[in-house]
């Protein structure tokens, strides 16, 4: 389960001041680090107010998101669209909420502190929890449902309505190009693990543009995507065990739904997580894949084309490969992008993703069959 960590003594100078912009100063009781995000700093604030008992406060990493105001612009357009759809047509038989933006006393959706850090706050989804890795087949199906519902809710929001808040995000050939440029500049450490990563990446480099080629020649359309639908971003109702929300909306922007489908599967079908104690045991579990797709297709089948379905297998393999390249490249660059606990963490993370790729490749036929059969077996529920 995603843990709360106390930050007493090491919080940013402006953490409390930032919380006070979005909540009432004399009521804020506690501010705790929240979740295990690799990019932004996230805190859970207990605000004491009856209306908003808790809220989520975040400091956006400006090294990654150079124009955070565009994120907020996207979030406003996205929220307006989705709230209207949910108002007209709420999902049957379950609670479903989208995080709301909170405003400052001056009606602003963000606050810039005197050091130039960008803070914003969103509502906390009450009575829900999230997990860093998948806990059951039902959980996987709920993750699939949440992503499917998300895609359905934005399926009529034209891709050009939202800005590109993170250029090159999930464009695998761009990550590969950057990795090759980094390799030219600095020699990789002479370790067997680094050598394995380099060989692994090299042997699959022809595969890297598969989705981008299908996008450029019109086989796969640009749509609005979540961008980061890993298992820990799906909130689960603590009473019913059903998905109640999908959070972490900073990368909601134009893209291919395949980035989301591939990314959620590479995350959800590896129950050991992204940096496990036993990396040799990492495997891509086909039963979890089937469960996630069952949940996904139950709600998202309506807008997917035959061609979309054809690329699902490649998207799973590609997104695990891409994340491995991203982790390894960051390891080589000295951990400038992802937060790390120690100097080898990005290398370990890359090795885990590459094990997932191998596991996917060794089950290629079985996975293609699961995708085909699940897509045709599940009847989409109207939303
Ligand atoms: C990053 O920060 P976080 O944990 O939400 C990354 C994702 C990766 C993920 C791997 C903007 O997400 O793309 O899949 O780490 N987000 C960005 O855990 O790069
Ligand atoms: Mg994220």
Task: Please describe what this structure looks like.
- The protein is globular.
- The protein is 43% helix and 12% strand.
- The chain has a six-stranded antiparallel β-sheet with strand order 1-2-3-4-6-5, covered by helices on one side. A three-stranded antiparallel β-sheet has the order 7-9-10, covered by helices on one side. It has a two-stranded antiparallel sheet with strand order 8-11.
- The chain is α+β, with helices and mostly antiparallel strands.
- Strand 3 and strand 4 form a beta hairpin.
- It has twelve helices and eleven strands.
- It folds into two domains: 103 residues, Phosphorylase Kinase, domain 1, CATH 3.30.200.20; 241 residues, Aminoglycoside phosphotransferase (APH), C-terminal lobe (Aminoglycoside 3'-phosphotransferase, Chain: A, domain 2, Alpha-Beta Complex), CATH 3.90.1200.10.
- The structure holds 2-acetamido-2-deoxy-1-O-phosphono-alpha-D-glucopyranose and magnesium ion.
- 2-acetamido-2-deoxy-1-O-phosphono-alpha-D-glucopyranose (GN1) binds next to loops.
């Amino acid at each position: 389960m995603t843990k709360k960590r106390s930050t007493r003594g090491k919080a940013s100078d402006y953490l409390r001041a930032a919380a006070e912009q979005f909540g009432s100063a004399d009521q804020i009781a506690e501010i705790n680090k929240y979740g295990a995000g690799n990019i932004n700093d996230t805190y859970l604030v207990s605000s004491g107010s009856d209306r908003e008992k808790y809220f989520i406060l975040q400091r956006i990493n400006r090294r990654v998101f150079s124009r955070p105001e565009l994120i907020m612009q996207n979030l406003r357009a996205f929220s307006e669209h989705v709230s209207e759809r949910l108002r007209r047509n709420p999902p049957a038989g379950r609670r479903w909420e989208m995080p709301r933006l909170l405003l400052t006393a001056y009606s602003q959706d963000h606050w810039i502190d005197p050091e130039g850090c960008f803070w914003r706050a969103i509502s906390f989804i009450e009575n829900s929890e999230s997990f860093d890795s998948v806990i059951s087949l039902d959980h996987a199906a709920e993750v699939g449902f949440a992503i499917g519902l998300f895609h359905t809710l934005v399926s009529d929001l034209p891709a050009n309505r939202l800005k590109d808040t993170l250029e090159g995000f999930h464009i695998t050939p761009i990550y590969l190009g950057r990795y090759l440029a980094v390799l030219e500049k600095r020699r990789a450490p002479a370790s067997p693990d680094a050598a394995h990563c380099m060989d692994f990446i090299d042997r699959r480099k022809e595969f890297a543009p598969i989705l981008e080629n299908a996008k450029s020649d019109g086989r796969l359309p640009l749509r609005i995507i979540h961008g980061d639908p890993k298992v820990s971003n799906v909130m689960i109702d603590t009473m019913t065990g059903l998905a109640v929300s999908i959070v972490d909306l900073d990368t909601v922007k134009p893209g291919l739904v395949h980035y989301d489908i591939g990314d959620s599967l590479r995350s959800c079908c590896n129950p050991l997580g992204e940096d496990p104690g036993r990396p040799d045991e990492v495997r891509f579990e086909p039963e979890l894949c089937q469960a996630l797709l069952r949940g996904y297709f139950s709600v998202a089948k309506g807008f997917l084309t035959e061609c979309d379905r054809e690329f699902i297998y490649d998207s799973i393999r590609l997104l695990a490969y891409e994340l491995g390249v991203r982790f390894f490249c960051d390891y080589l660059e000295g951990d400038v992008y992802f937060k790390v606990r120690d100097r080898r963490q990005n290398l370990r993370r890359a090795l885990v993703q590459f094990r997932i790729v191998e596991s996917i490749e060794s089950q290629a036929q079985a996975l293609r069959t699961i995708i085909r059969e699940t897509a045709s077996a599940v009847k989409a529920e109207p939303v």
